[in-house]
Design brief:
Elements: E1 13-14, E2 19-20, E3 24-26, H1 39-52, E4 57-63, H2 81-96, E5 101-105, E6 118-119, E7 133-134, H3 137-156, E8 161-166, H4 171-176, H5 191-194, H6 196-209, E9 214-222, H7 231-244, E10 248-253, H8 273-280, E11 288-289, H9 296-304, E12 310-313, H10 316-319, H11 323-328, H12 346-349, E13 379-383, H13 387-399, E14 402-407, H14 416-419, H15 428-441, E15 445-448, E16 462-465, E17 469-471, E18 484-486, H16 487-493, E19 500-504, H17 508-517, H18 525-531, E20 555-559, H19 575-584, E21 588-590, E22 594-599, E23 602-607, E24 610-614, E25 618-621, E26 625-627, H20 632-637, E27 642-644, H21 656-669
Parallel strand pairs: 3-4, 3-12, 4-5, 5-8, 6-7, 8-9, 9-10, 11-12, 13-14, 13-16, 14-15, 16-27, 18-25, 19-20, 19-25, 20-21
Antiparallel strand pairs: 1-2, 17-26, 22-23, 23-24
Helix pairs in contact: 1-2, 3-6, 6-7, 13-15, 13-21, 17-19
């Protein structure tokens, strides 16, 4: 190998008729720009920035080949020549930067959020509102033709290839698995018939686009649902896809309806590379691995060990568009690492909002949230070195302001210093590392161990108050009992608690504390796979072991005042993971609780109208936060230009997505 920092990652890949400049595939992500007015111009900028920074091959978000395949009635579609003109903005912009780009063709099948949904069989998915219609033979043949026609239009639009979405439980996957295909004709029954739809699509596409066009097939290698494919079936399909003419085999892990996390922060890095490694031994075309690959070293290790030929990273290119460039320049410490939170990307897309990124709010807003250089370098003070303060200080310094950051503690990071100590949230330390590095690189003067006073701030042109939050302590009789501890003290001082613990407050912080207190002693990949019933031997159908639970030796009660579900935590796409984790560990989730008192006997409460005493050793207070701002009014009275952001402005539920965006937006407006 040569002397590059990441020689395997940066090695070109020869596809015969074309060459990719490295082994990095920017995986498909729907951004919401696909449906916005002027969205294609914004998408062109979004993709071009990543292409300029060296991505080997970009894959767009999913476009349906026909109306019934749309995820919802207004979703993007590529099926006629009017669509082609818009797509040329994207392909031209990417090619101008020396990049290559493929369009993903995705038919939602029974996942379509409309009464027009169709599938192999009329079986509603557990996450859908609509029962699909069973496709007729004519509809099946027309859909195959629609895929081929859309691929031909993609070539006309200037794309270098297409990706056929055959995983994650979408239409092609629905034909493959008996779970959703209970037909007994030429398109169902035995496995050979169930995979016929996939094979015929590939053949039809190859016939339309010719031999010098990339066809990627995203194959579900681990369904993680009942009645999913076996390992032998996956291998059989991979070989038949290769014979039918695909160029690259991409990996899909888990259906959307699977009750197993596959891309959230809790998932260990490169948790599924072993699956791709096993399939790779069976095929001769390049194979791509994916899921929770977020640093150059993780990607390099996968390729060096022969687990894949390429690595797919999607959200890491939201977090840092220059990921590849920084790897090429051996600047891994300068990468803004994806923390797998899903809060600004998937959570947004699933409610019809534009995607972005918690750690990089400029993602998908490249043409709107612009940090333009200032003509005059005014003096700016930022008080508080948490996420909001760090983001604001860095963005202001990037514009050319002279920035001083005051932090009363001996380290920056704020609430992220607590978050990174929660099992499954260790990635938050990467965000602190990134912003600490950027503070240094942009010339921000960081004054640690300094609690800023009003008189120190009078000479600044602008003062940003980002002093964060402190725990809210509820007015419960006996709240000052020695049994009681607030979440901040518990985590920051790493206190050891007893065997029976009650947690008052079941928001995101309460869920995190319950997770931390019940975490198993083992933390390696194999133990995580066992906890989630994933069959690493691939002997069970769908890669799914019989369900099992881990009962923590510590007994924990997670309590909330309001009735309803307990323990969901924040996040549309991750809340269920938190709840399922706690259920599997035996945590008692109680709602509608009225707290009466705390004394030597324990926690006195009323639930379902009945008084009870929880004889616990400790009680952890997780009842939200209150803002900390002792400066803004003083400074305003003295005529100073003051801006209050982050938790200091609105404590609420701790929301890093909101406060980081607020910090950058303020810096852009100064």
């Amino acid at each position: 190998m040569d002397d590059k920092a990441y020689p395997y990652l940066l090695m070109p890949l020869d596809l015969g008729f074309t060459q990719l400049r490295n082994r990095v595939l920017m995986g498909s992500m729907h951004t919401g720009l696909e449906e916005e007015r002027e969205g294609f111009h914004k998408l062109a900028t979004f993709y071009a920035i990543r292409a300029k920074a060296g991505v080997g091959l970009i894959v767009t978000g999913g476009f349906s080949p026909n109306f019934r395949g749309r995820l919802h009635p207004l979703s993007a579609e590529l099926s006629n020549h009017r669509h082609v003109r818009k797509h040329r903005h994207i392909t031209a912009a990417v090619h101008q930067q020396g990049g290559k780009i493929a369009l993903q063709l995705l038919h939602a099948g029974r996942y379509a959020m409309s009464p027009f949904a169709v599938s192999a069989s009329a079986i509603r998915s557990p996450i859908s509102k609509f029962t699909p219609s069973k496709m007729s033979h004519r509809q099946i043949n027309n859909t195959i033709n629609d895929f081929a026609h859309s691929a031909e239009l993609a070539r006309e639009a200037g794309y270098d290839g297409v990706e056929l979405m055959g995983s994650e439980g979408y239409l092609i996957n629905q034909f493959i698995c008996q779970r959703s295909n209970q037909r007994y004709d030429d398109w169902g029954g035995g496995y050979d018939n169930r995979i016929r739809f996939a094979i015929e699509i590939v053949r039809a596409v190859r016939a339309r686009v010719g031999d010098d066009f990339i066809i990627i097939f995203r194959l579900s290698m681990l369904d993680l649902v009942e009645q999913g494919s076996t390992y032998d079936e996956v291998v059989q399909l991979a070989l038949e896809l290769e014979e039918a003419g695909i160029t690259i085999l991409n990996t899909g892990i888990g259906w959307h309806e699977a009750r197993i996390p596959t891309i959230a922060t809790q998932v260990p890095r490169a948790a599924f590379a072993w699956v791709t490694e096993k399939i790779k031994q069976q095929v001769s075309i390049p194979i791509v691995t994916c899921n929770r690959i977020n640093t150059p070293q993780v990607a390099e290790d996968i390729l060096a060990q022969g687990q894949a030929d390429m690595v797919s990273m999607a959200r890491p290119f939201l977090a840092d568009p220059e990921f590849v460039l920084k790897a090429e320049q051996n600047r891994a410490d300068d990468i803004n690492t994806c923390i797998g939170c899903n809060q600004a990307c998937l959570d947004h897309v699933f409610v019809g909002k534009r995607a972005s990124c918690l750690v990089n709010p400029q993602a998908c807003y490249e043409k709107e949230l612009v940090l333009t250089a200032v003509a005059t370098a005014r003096k700016v003070a930022v008080v508080g070195g948490g996420p909001a303060g760090m983001a604001c200080a860095v963005a202001a310094a990037e514009r050319g302001f002279k920035v001083d950051l005051f932090e009363k503690n001996d380290h920056v990071g704020g609430q992220f210093n607590l978050a990174m100590q929660i099992p499954g949230k260790e990635e938050f330390k990467e965000t602190i590392r990134y912003f600490t590095r950027r503070l240094e690189q942009t010339g921000v003067v960081v004054r640690l161990g300094v609690e800023a006073k009003a008189e120190q701030l009078l000479d600044y042109d602008d003062v940003i108050i980002a002093t964060g939050v402190q725990p809210n302590i509820p007015p419960i009789t006996g709240i000052d009992h020695p049994k009681v501890i607030d979440y901040q003290t518990l985590i920051s001082q790493q206190r050891v608690l007893g065997e029976k613990v009650a947690i008052i407050g079941a928001g995101g912080i309460g869920v995190d504390v319950a997770t931390m207190l019940t975490e198993p002693a083992e933390h390696d990949l194999d133990s995580w796979l066992r906890e989630w019933d994933i069959d690493k031997s691939l002997c069970h159908r769908g890669g799914l072991l019989p369900s099992s639970d881990y009962n923590s030796p510590r007994q924990v009660w997670l309590l909330q005042r309001r009735p309803g579900k307990v323990g969901k935590g924040p996040g549309r796409t991750t809340g269920w993971i938190h709840r399922r984790t706690l259920e599997k560990r035996g945590v008692k989730l109680w709602a509608g609780v009225h707290y009466q008192a705390i004394d030597d006997e324990g926690l006195h409460l009323i639930i379902d109208g009945q008084p009870q005493i929880l004889a616990v050793d400790n009680i952890v207070i997780c009842t939200g936060q209150t803002s900390v701002d002792n400066l803004s009014q003083q400074l305003t009275r003295q005529g100073v230009s003051v801006h209050v952001i982050g938790g200091a402005e609105d404590a609420g539920e701790v929301d890093a997505k909101r406060v980081i965006r607020q910090g950058v937006e303020l810096a852009a407006k100064l």
